Amino acid sequence: PRDVAEDVSQLDNVYAYNLDHFDQVVARHQHLRQEDVHEAEEIIKQAVEAFAQEREQSDLFGSVAEYFESLTENELIYAKKHLGKSGVQVAEDDLRYLLSRVSKKMRHQLMQLLRDMPDSPQMRELISRICGPRDPS
Q1: Tens digit of each residue's pLDDT (9 = 90 or more) over 44-101
Q2: Is the distance from CB of 107 to CB of 87 less than 8 angstroms?
């Protein structure tokens, strides 16, 4: 309380604190907490950026897989039609297996490039352009 004499703090083992002291302590702790808030915001910002990049790469991986699956199916249809006109009998399962193997090997190469250079926007753009929407014929 403010009605205690200031010379009380001169006595041994007596510590007199007033509201001004507590205000200073509170202000100091608020400043420290504010620094912690800035650190926490930076950690959150970095985590959000990492998540966004991972999500973008995951979406791109999905696009690459879809592109090659579509390519395999389209080529299977074309091969059956073309070989049918020639009178060649080929088992669809064998043809699908062959096309799938080639497709997976090519897809693997693109995905490996993405894994090797995850921070390369040029690589992501190039692969997006290769595997992006296009005329299926």
Answers
A1: 999 998 888 888 777 888 888 888 888 888 888 888 888 777 777 778 888 888 888 8
A2: no
What long-range pairs does 62-67 form, CB within 8 A, spacing at least 24? 63/128, 63/131, 63/132, 64/107, 64/110, 64/111, 64/114, 64/127, 64/131, 65/107, 66/131, 67/130, 67/131, 67/132
Chain centroid to Cα 5, Å, comes to 63
pLDDT at 16 over 70: yes
Quote the pTM value: 0.51
Question: d(Cα 7, Cα 4) in Å, to the nearest integer?
Answer: 9
Among 64, 72, 74, which residue's Cα sits nearest to residue 130?
64
